[in-house]
């Protein structure tokens, strides 16, 4: 069955207390309509930034309740398509992004998308590279802002979370309570200005509940590679966590020892930055699946 969830069902924190928009079955396809990260408040480069409602940042559409998803299960989210709007919005300024200690004023930039390229300036055209910034399930305890990534997923801002990827998230509460949003027409690893090419979107996914699945989450599979994703207060902590989780994956899927597993990652793994601008930082470790002969699929 196919379901449509409109962007009016927006949340700004992921929590077990959020009421689900609808109940879906494992194997169902869901279309999420999503605002951009500013809840579509910005329509001009001349807007007064201070006039924005800053309580409406990084909305996620949902959540949905997945029938049969129990605490301890894993939710597979297969991303089919990300259909985006025709204009990207970016903003940066004091205390935002890597250059926030040097900038004096808040600035907004908007750029049209033409023929799958962002017309950044007259001379610079950036290829569209669509991805989902915020996607997660409800955490086990409390509420976590949609702007914060953590063990439940959330604002991971990972460029590999895109069309053709399968993302695996923990089920911490009954029904999982999946929500997503903050889509980008393009973004580089790091998201260093604090924005990607922010854009409204419709995202089509299929959700499946996996039982007795022991691979550490969140992780994703795309282009015959697996990436373990981790978020923590510092990038160093996130990088170590992502790497150690991949060691666990290698140990589960091969006959290698811990020492051999870390050697393998030193030779063939790619440790990458996802983002360095959110309250928690996010890193991922990528490894081709060909090295994991017994990986569960």
In short:
This protein is mostly beta strands and 297 residues long.
What does this structure look like?
The protein has helices at 235-253, 258-268, and strands at 2-5, 10-11, 13-15, 22-24, 29-34, 60-66, 74-84, 87-92, 107-114, 117-119, 125-127, 131-136, 143-145, 149-150, 153-154, 166-170, 176-184, 201-210, 219-222, 225-232, 270-275, 281-288. It is mainly beta. The protein has 2 domains: 2-210, Sandwich (Jelly Rolls); 219-291, Endonuclease I-creI (Roll). The protein has a 9-stranded mixed sheet with strand order 1-5-18-7-16-19-20-22-21. α1 packs across α2.
Features:
single chain; 297 residues; mainly beta; Jelly Rolls; Endonuclease I-creI
What layout of secondary structure does this protein have?
Blueprint (H helix, E strand, L loop, with lengths): L1 E4 L4 E2 L1 E3 L6 E3 L4 E6 L25 E7 L7 E11 L2 E6 L14 E8 L2 E3 L5 E3 L3 E6 L6 E3 L3 E2 L2 E2 L11 E5 L5 E9 L16 E10 L8 E4 L2 E8 L2 H19 L4 H11 L1 E6 L5 E8 L9
Parallel strand pairs: 1-5, 4-6
Antiparallel strand pairs: 2-6, 3-13, 5-18, 6-17, 7-16, 7-18, 8-9, 9-10, 10-11, 12-15, 12-17, 14-15, 16-19, 19-20, 20-22, 21-22
């Amino acid at each position: 069955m196919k379901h449509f969830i409109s962007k009016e069902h927006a949340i700004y924190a992921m929590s077990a207390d959020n009421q689900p928009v609808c109940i879906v079955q494992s194997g169902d396809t869901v279309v999420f309509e999503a605002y951009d990260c500013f809840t579509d408040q910005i329509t001009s480069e001349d807007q007064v930034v201070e006039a924005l409602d800053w309580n409406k940042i990084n909305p996620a559409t949902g959540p949905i309740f997945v029938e049969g998803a129990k605490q301890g299960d894993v939710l597979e989210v297969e991303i089919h398509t990300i259909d985006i709007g025709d204009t990207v919005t970016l903003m940066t300024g004091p205390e935002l992004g890597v250059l926030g200690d040097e900038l004096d004023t808040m600035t907004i930039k908007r750029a049209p998308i033409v023929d799958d390229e962002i017309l950044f300036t007259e001379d610079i055209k950036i290829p569209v590279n669509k991805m989902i910034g915020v996607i997660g399930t409800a955490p086990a305890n409390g509420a976590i802002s949609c702007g914060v990534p953590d063990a439940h997923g959330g604002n991971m801002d990972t460029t590999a979370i895109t069309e053709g990827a399968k993302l695996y998230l923990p089920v911490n509460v009954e029904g999982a309570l999946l929500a997503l949003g903050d889509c980008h027409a393009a973004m580089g690893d790091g998201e260093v200005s604090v924005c990607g090419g922010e854009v409204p979107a419709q995202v089509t996914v299929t959700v499946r509940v996996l039982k007795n699945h022991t691979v550490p989450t969140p992780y994703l599979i795309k282009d015959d590679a697996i990436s373990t994703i981790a978020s923590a207060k510092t990038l160093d902590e996130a990088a170590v966590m992502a790497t150690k989780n991949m060691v666990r994956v290698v140990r589960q899927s091969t006959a290698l020892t811990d020492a051999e597993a870390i050697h393998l990652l030193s030779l063939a793994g790619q440790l990458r930055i996802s983002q360095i601008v959110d309250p928690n930082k996010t890193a991922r470790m990528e490894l081709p699946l060909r090295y994991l002969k017994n990986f569960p699929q």
